[in-house]
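user: can you give me the structure for this one chain? tokens are fine.
assistant: on it. calling the predictor now.
[tool input]
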Amino acid sequence: MDLQNLHNFFYSGNFIPHGHCYQWKPELVSLHILSDVLIGLSYYSIPITLVYFIRKRKDIPFQNIFLLFGAFIISCGTTHIMEVWTLWHPNYWFAGALKALTALISFYTALTLIPLVPKGLALPSPAQLETTNQALMMEIMERKRVEQELRQYKEHLEEIVQTRTVELELANAQLQQEIVQRQQSQDKMVGLLKELRSANQELNDFAYVVSHDLKAPLRGITSLSEWLLADYGEEFDEEGKKMVNLMISRVQRLHQLIDDILKYSRVGRAKVEKKNINLNKVVTELVEVLNIRENIKVEIPNQLPTIFCDKTRIEQLFQNLITNAIKFIDKPEGLIKISYVDEEEYYKFSVADNGIGIESQHFEKIFQLFQKLTSLQDSDSTGVGLALVKKIVELHDGKVWVESEVGVGSNFVFTIKK
């Protein structure tokens, strides 16, 4: 803005002074002058009072709104003084600018005041303050009464403490006796634990020794029987050959029984090493290596999960269940279905088949060691497989059971804790 525009802003020669509108009548001009001057001076005195008030009462809330009110009132007073000035000097642009500034301050003050209204209404009234003050006085009196009672309780408590101290000394003496007894019991438990470990080691050694001592003559009997058939088979009649083959079969079955017993005994004694195992890989590899007849189909409808378990024992578990299903499928088209359900704390697995089935009264019996059902007798079964399955499942904090219908099939269900 150059000097000429600035000069025109403060002095507009194109306008006439406001006094011409009043025809320069002395009484009318004096009325406006007196009114505007008194209003302006009154406006100027109000902010001074507000500033003095908030300086003396620094605890007054919303001090910023007081300052805004002061600015608003000063600007309003200035516009009235400007009204007196424009009676003789037509600086209407400058007067308009002052009014615009006043409008902005007024508008901002109004916007600031609106959200303060609820806060102001929330301030306690003098009546509420008086009520609060009375409540505080009552509370002080109540506290004095409570303090008096506490002093009495303290004196009584000291008496109780003395009595309890004597009782605690007696209890402490008894506790010391109990500690000595518990230490003695702990020492006995340590001794028993050592004996148990020693017995467990002896049992483990005994199992391997018995296994070796039994397997060696069994292998010899098998070899001699095979040599008899090879060297003197032509001299045997059919009944003789049948008896030798039966002897070989019984020896092999005894050999398998020894292996199964060793597996069963190791499950409870060997260290459990759990890690994340992908069951899809485990089951797929088992299906590939097991001797599954061509007429039997193995289905896995959905992807099996990865679980935290002992890999060797889980392989034994699925191998026993799948082998058991293969043995007792009597249909021309056999089916073994392996699936699972994800429950809150467990994985629930299912190995189902369409075999000969099991009667309901035998559901518990089949999981006992060396228990075989008369209707399920075969030359390969040792009665250990399902007992081993139960032991492995319980080792993983789960349960196992069977659902079956004779002639339709069996479904072996077990859970593994996550």
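assistant: here you go. The first strand starts at residue 274 and ends at 278. The longest helix spans residues 126-232.
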